Amino acid sequence: MVTGVRPGDTVVLAYSGGLDTSVIIPWLKETYGVEVVAFCADLGQGDDLQAVRQKALASGARAVVIRDLKEEFLTGYAFPMLKSGAIYEGVYLLGTSIARPLIGKALVEVARETGAQAVSHGATGKGNDQVRFELAVMALAPDLKVIAPWREWHIRGRLEAIAYAESHGIPVPATRESPYSRDQNLWHISHEGGSLEDPSIPTPHDVYTWTRHPQDAPNQPETLVVGFESGSPVSLNGQRMHPVDLMTEANRLGAWHGVGRVTMVENRLVGMKSRGVYETPGGTILYAAHEALTSITWDRETALFSRQVALRLARLIYDGLWFSALRENLMGFVSQANRVVTGEATVQLYKGSVTAHAMTSPFSLYSQDLATFEGGQYDHQDAQGFIRLFGLPLAVRHAVMKGEAR
Fold first, then answer.
1. What's this model's pTM, rounded to 2 decimal places?
2. How far apart, in Å, are the Cα atoms of 404 and each of 388, 389, 393, 398?
3. What domains can you pick out in the chain, each with its CATH number?
4. Residues marked as catalytic
5. Least packed by Cβ within 10 Å: which of 83, 104, 158, 339?
């Protein structure tokens, strides 16, 4: 039990309407005797939010607060992450990880607005999300109490949670036949649980809910031109678009061509390995286009250093340290480096793949006059002295090893 929470207090619950948070409302009321305000962040998950509202009220919530955070999610979180090139363990585009700090920030704001003494979430004691939510609260409102039911109640798994929901007359999307835990937003959808917990079993076809199987994708490739300004995507095929509309269209095209499917075993922050399936159709396209544009706008040293920054930021985002000083400072480099990432990248979508084919930018460092095989201003004789100096340490070492050095 969390100390300092008394009967009659107000608790704001990060509410999705899924299995975990659906059973938490009655549990909080029964266990703590508190009033529950359900907070739902609209990140483009596609739910009927009015139905979610009614479900929360029917489950015992005193009030429901729904916030449209789609644009802020993209411009303040997902797109800055895109600009950094952060990818966790070389595969995961961090769709769940990048959403949690925004939800945590909004959860704190609602708690302040409603005079709540505590907040609650439905993350399990085995997962990363408990850390992400609670670090956001610690960074923004450390005086708030945090109630994490999965670390307290007698329920030990999703099947028991389903039984609890049934006993309280709460309809939930998960079933004993399809017990997958899913998280969706404008950036991706993740799938965990069920048969996915056995890495020896190939990913079942019924897991995917967004993208087409690459084998069923169109037999003809589709070309897409993505426009960027200072590293952020602003247009598709020459049409300037609102961030939410652009992301929606990129997702539609990527899903149609089977782009963005990943099955991986990842190293969780809490010390265990877990297997997950991710669908990130639009994000995969944008990452490929952004990388293509940086190939002509970043010099060699910036490109090399940016990879180190991307690795560190991926870890910080995954570990829930979005509100840390290091993340903010590294983002300073990312913003500065992306000032020149303006232009267009042409990519081709074909049966699950995204390949870059062309890129243009007013800040391009590519000089055709220098690179061409047909003459140009480059003096080939300049390379001779360069190679002598560049290879001088090798010649010295050879002499030392042979005993020829004086």
1. 0.94
2. 19, 19, 14, 8
3. 10-69+98-181 (3.40.50.620), 184-360 (3.90.1260.10), 374-401 (no CATH)
4. 20, 100, 129, 181
5. 339
